[in-house]
From TrEMBL:
<dbReference type="Pfam" id="PF02493">
    <property type="entry name" value="MORN"/>
</dbReference>
<dbReference type="InterPro" id="IPR003409">
    <property type="entry name" value="MORN"/>
</dbReference>
<protein>
    <submittedName>
        <fullName>2-isopropylmalate synthase</fullName>
    </submittedName>
</protein>
<keyword id="KW-0677">Repeat</keyword>
Amino acid sequence: MQNSSNLYQDSVYSGESLNSLKHGFGSLRFNYGSVFTGIFANDQIVTGTFVYEKDFVYEGQFQGLSRHGCGKFTCPQFTYVGDFVNDEMHGTGQLNCVGMEFQGQFVNGEVSQGTLTKEKSVYTGSFHSGQGFWYKSGTLKENDQIYTGEFENNEFSGSGTLIYADSSVYTGQFKNNMKHGSGKLTFNNKNTFEGTFNNDEFNQGIYTFENGNIYEGAFKNNEFNGKGVLKWKGGYYSGEFADDQFDGEGTICLENGLTVNGRFKNGELVQ
């Protein structure tokens, strides 16, 4: 138990007492302007309302003069209702401020894990320690999209899955909110691309059409560009592409045994 003679110095008490100790209902007025009103037991504050200064108010349990236990703290920036330990938000609580609401776990005054609701988004997951509302790993619903995975600087970064508004789904690596690295994209028309991405665009991999046609090779601007192989029922083309067309040196092989080697331009054999 803290020494009340030191704890409550520079204050004036008025209220109930027992054996010369503050006990029961009473109030403390401090010289610096703060006021506590509530319940005392054996000279110690137990529970009540502490007005620190204008618009800074705590209502709840105490340990000495520290907020400790369940309580509500209100200030111009936010309102917090929940657990306190040693004068800090710690445990389960809800924090409301302009434009957002957080419900979840706090550690040493910082958000740790929970749900952050804003006007146009909802995030559920963990937060980077000591960085406020900076997402770490969880699920973000925003702009009719759902992302589940890792974050850096509140951007998709690391491994994750993104469900687009049109129901297309990407699972793989992200960087700076873009598909970057290895991954698989499944379109809502059932076409798929699996391979590597560079700054949100296809780089190298396999594109499979719903009808069974398959392209494997290089891409640029999300189109077949460079060397690759396009297979379809009845044959395939192996060679160079430009803007989704046979373009350059290549070979067409058909299942009937016909083989054509030559130079192509815009999908047509020219030499």
